[in-house]
Amino acid sequence: MDARIPHYINLILKPIDDICNLNCNYCHEKYDQKLLPSNGLISSGTYNNLPIIQWFPKLLKELKNIPEIKKVNFCWHGGEPLLLPFEFYNRIVKEQRKQLNDNFFDYENVVITNCMNMDKNKIKWIEKLGFSLSISCDGPTYHHNKERFDSIHKYQIFRKNLNLVNKESKAFSLHMVINKYSLKDYPAFMNFFEEINPINGVALGMCYLKNNILNTKELSDFFCNLFDIWNPKRTPYILLFQEIINGLNYFPPRYCKIAKNGCISFITVDSNGLLYSGCQRKEALKIGNIAEINFTDIIKKHIENIALLNKKIKGKTIYESSNSDPRFIYFQSKGCPNRLDNKDEDPYLPVYVNLMNHISDRLKIDIDLLIKELKERHNVKKTHSLY
After folding, report:
1. For residue 320, is pLDDT > 80?
2. How many Cα atoms sit within 13 Å of 319 on the Cβ side?
3. 76 and 173 share a domain?
4. CB neighbourhood size of 183 (10 A)
5. Most buried of 83, 90, 93, 153, CB within 10 angstroms?
6. CA distance 169 to 104
7. What range does the domain containing 366 cover?
């Protein structure tokens, strides 16, 4: 078995590529308004002609041939994946159940949606299929969402649909993008989280535009202040905070922005079956077409691509940026390779360093106890890798 092969794969599937019903300012995908259906939905007749109908069965078959893979997350992405009709996802689930019923690996389906096309029937149908919802937004008010919605009317539609999901759905998550309109409003965000209370938690991202990078001091203050409000109850689950807590308590984090080799678990597949290493479609990271190559070769090329990607990002790791503070020994990331400045460094890396120092101080991590624990671990199992 190849130890470099990830046991967990995030497959970011883009069945209609960048077709969307919004035009977010910070979207890294090319948006083409003329591709948007006038009625806001892909017709049943059209979906049958999508290339994914042909290549998806082969993808499942190939995945089964890699014994190292223990879990696959099928992440349905866009654009807006819920522009596709019910029939498309019914067909996808039928194929999954047909091919994966022998428990080759655990798997789940997650739809990343902007919630603009939501109604009660769709919520019930999604849950019946066993899918999870991850709803993207930028904050609790229209002001926070100005990078996303070009009118208050669109925001009102979103908020109405979000309230419906909150009422009707058993479990969903929020995917938040912190932008320049958010930085002073951390109490409003916490109130929003408590009001919506997403059972599957909250993912916090940082808006990145090359010509408009957020102030790292203000961004650090936002996260630190938000953590202080969240920490006493620790609900709802906030991925970034919990992963930092895990790392400070001797459990290597998995969150891609702070874990070493974090991109290794991500493979993106476009509508035509072209695969790319990482979470974005970049020509330099193209692997090949699923219709033409097997998954053994896909994984081999993916590992090579990620190694090149890791070499591209310069600067110090979080651990090195903290003067090799033993509290941060599990944080061996240099940040996100998809948001590099002109020095090929992640400009937001200091935000993670500041937040980790803040959380460590709040948790009163005992450095001497930590060093003792780490030494004991190496004495017990010398082959154990901290990273």
Report:
1. yes
2. 17
3. yes
4. 18
5. 83
6. 29
7. 314-380
